[in-house]
Structures
1.
Amino acid sequence: MIVELNKNLSPAETNEFCRKLSEYKCNLLWKSDKRLLLEGDFDLLTRNLKNFPEFGRTEVISEKYKLVNRKFNPGGTEIKFGDFGFSEDSFNIIAGPCAVESREQIFKIAEFVKSRGIKFLRGGVFKPRTSPYAFQGLKEEGLKLLAEVKEKFDLKIITEVMDASRLEAVSEVVDIIQIGSRNMQNFSLLEAVGKKGIPVLLKRGMAATVEDYLMSAEHIAYHGNQNIILCERGIKTFETSSRNTLDLNSVTIMKEKSHLPVLVDPSHGTGIRDKVIPMALAGSACGADGLIIEIHNEPEKALSDGQQSLTFEMFDALLSKVKQVICVNNKSLS
Ligand code: PEP
Ligand code: MN
């Protein structure tokens, strides 16, 4: 049960309050200044609400995920970066290469992204690769390049962190931390980004149900961070004609069940360059709050995910079509 408090409780009042709650077979699971999350026998508690003058509105949440539940924040969460951000009413595109490969490459792509009015640049520097022989990213050197492009082009930067040991250093440079599909249930990493408070793009695990996924987001929120952006990036199914199966059902379900912004990643969702635009449009039509798209100045030479990276020309085509589609949801590109 979520409880809105009429007043801030001092630590002593909270202790007394918890003691009283336990008499009604309820426990405090989580608290912020103005809200509490309780578990227990709500019937008993509700019958005795008069004994708790500090209680305001109460609402029972039956799903396992509580803090990321739509009922916790019915109006939807806004993740702001100055005068723009991710929200129910806006639409944002994050674009950039799968991986930062060189100064020349990331500068060319950043310049293009900026020229198209896009505000968020992606670029992996610590890459989770299936093969240890594949390009693993430029690591610290790549992070320095991200710092340089951020400064030069005034773009918001997003990059993946694979383990908590790198979180401090990466957070000093970037605006959004990406937690990749393979790490969706890396609970110590979720705890670390939760405590850090920095905006997080949490990608759906490739074999995670929507409930598993929202429970991972719940870990981040539980540790103090509500600045979470969800991202459908495709799941593993028996289908082999595309890299993953982009589960757009999940977008509509997550929008209903959670207050967090939801993006679609048609690049990893399809793994096929020619399929990225149609699935980006489908994701935009079904109510996503934005897209994350891999682009490259020379996709055929890319060191990772070239086969699913759009050329600049294709990205222009995507932009003009997406602008038309998002009107149906009363959204416009920020
Ligand atoms: C990526 O964004 O490049 C990436 C590795 O994504 P995912 O974790 O969804 O595979
Ligand atoms: Mn990639």
2.
Amino acid sequence: MSNYHIKSFEEYFQVYRKSIENPEGFWEEIAEEHFTWRKKWNNVLSWDFTKPEVKWFEGAQLNITENCLDRHLSTRGDKTAILFEPNDPNAPAEHITYKQLHERVCKFANALKSKGIQKGDRVCIYLPMIPELAVSVLACARIGAVHSVVFAGFSATALSTRINDCDAKMVITSDGSYRGTKTIDLKGIVDEALEDCPGVDSVLVAKRINSGIQMKEGRDYWLQSLLDDAYGDCTIEIMNAEDPLFILYTSGSTGMPKGMLHTTAGYMVYSAYTFKNVFDYRENDVYWCTADIGWITGHSYIVYGPLVNGATTVMFEGVPSYPDFGRFWKIVEKHKITQFYTAPTAIRALAKHGTKLVEKHDLSSLKVLGTVGEPINEEAWHWYNENIGKKKSPIVDTWWQTETGGIMITPIPFSTPTKPTYATLPFIGIQPALMDENGNELNDNQVDGRLCIKYPWPSMARTIWGNHQRYKDTYFSAFENMYFTGDGALRDEVGYYRITGRVDDVIIVSGHNLGTAPIEDAINEHQAVAESAIVGFPHDVKGNALYGYVTLKDSGESRDQDNLRKEINQLITDRIGPIAKLDKIQFTNGLPKTRSGKIMRRILRKIAFNEADQLGDISTLLNPEVVDEIITNVI
Ligand code: PRX
């Protein structure tokens, strides 16, 4: 038997060693024993980071949905696969069994086919957290269509950019969504986006809020009427190991969002294997990840990882604050949640409201707690450990990225001793390296550097859709023969890793990656704005918040500055989405620049951090005089 379920720290070390000494043999054994293949591979791994090109399980054939659904039908057919908790706390939860999910996915897959979707076509999914979102993802995978889920908080412009970039033929959406007490007109956003998307020829619309929306004749179809006509069985499309499974966009420090392409076999093996071990998943557990399927966390650890393992995975439609800040804990009690996986920003927001709402609920079902998306500060870690885990549920602080497809650095619960703010040790098969700025690997402990990965792992993204050169430049050019993560990290005296944050111009706000360039582009669209620069600054709930320095075309003194601030934030909301709004906007007469005209963000960051006394030598700037003015007017 292979080491599919690690149960002690000794075993972790033993399996880790095996996975490093003989990666191909190790992954071959895992793949062979725990997954359903239509044809076995000829070659476990071929790779070349200089191209870069990575192929896992070449020659193998499979369908990931056969692994998520069909193979469970005989043993787990009546077990709940998806447990849907609606926004309305008084509405009943929905238990969708593996049999029912299989049928719903098949019907949906047939509906996609009836609208001309074929293997290789891209389908954009813009849905709230309702079962149709998971079902549509799986339906695409079943017929070999490439899904590209766009988080339903993104604006029409952000949506159309992504649709056009991957050349999607179809959009799947709903008539609207619930968010606490609010409803959101998703179909209206899609309609607006599609004005700029000539390649989309059909839109499937799920009914959720029963709003009276416009349906465009010949383009828009009610999902339900297509499902009513669809057969409840749909044979799988046989996929090659390296066939695309999905594209998911993530922000870069400059330019367009990057469409990270994930392929089939390696992603399946790694997402499933990590799920099993990082959450110590056991057969009757009820696992809940609070992320949205619009992000990678939802792809790997709400949909694919849990379902491949035959787990019960919870989908929550609502928000942590509705009807009150006790909602999460109420759900934990109601469904006897065993694993709870969330973002530090949610923990901080809930901690702010004290422990009264926590104490009202029985949380004794919890076994493992997880965090993801950003560094967790010490205070939040302890609050989580004491009040939610009652000091008996290990916290797995999981570090990974959209690009990595699965969890990379993490404790194994009940095995790895945890340490607040540390993601601890590399997962099985992962070979991290810390590099200095000159490209040398730092081999000792008690060092900090840029975090890289030295060796391929099965679920790594294979390219940026339509722009392989950018993939190479972004991830494989900073350090020779290494994947560069964009993060800084330190390694302590025993080899534990602590992620210190981004070292590029990506800022993580409430666990969401935001590139500075697209936000600045949105601000610069305002007719009064000459130029702008965004930096992050510490925020007690969001981790980081955004600080914008904005230079106006005229001095701006005659303008209503509060109104300008509102207009700028509205532009950002329209172009990207409300998650990218600025917390602070300072109007300046100029931005500090190098003699070659580059904005010195380092200086702006220090000022926003209230560390203006640590600016160092600024005399070589092109315009040192603006710095004093900026410091004087800091918000
Ligand atoms: O900076 C790291 C941070 O989130 C980035 C990846 O963001 P994204 O692609 O949106 O994926 C988030 C969910 C996997 C990383 O480069 N990050 C993620 N997890 C952690 C983290 N920073 C510190 N600690 C973590 N546990």
